[in-house]
User: Fold this.
Amino acid sequence: MTHSLPRRTRVTAMSDQTFDTLRFIAQVVLPALGTLYFAIAQIWHLPFAEEVVGTIVALDAALGLILGYNRKRYLESDVLYDGTLEVTRRPDPAADLYSLDLSTPLEEVPEMPAITLKVNNNDDDEGSQ
Assistant:
């Protein structure tokens, strides 16, 4: 059995913990900080309210772009899968061939709550003649 998919390797430049922390900062901390400063600046007449909030929003947008790119790379990679299910289509659907190629060691499968497979559909050009 060949292993065509990598075993849960990282495809992004950051760890899961780093990604989750930065996502929390982008979704919660920076918007709250900008709102807080803007509200307090209006009440206490603090300087540069628009400039400070504009800077926070710009940083938040840049961080969101970086996180979005990393998430897209992760979702497009094969790291999400425990293996592939190769489907070779024949003219008669009852004659289709299925082949399971696990990238996760077989002895680990019984301990897993679920497995996720990538499905590769192939047409059998030789069998259709």
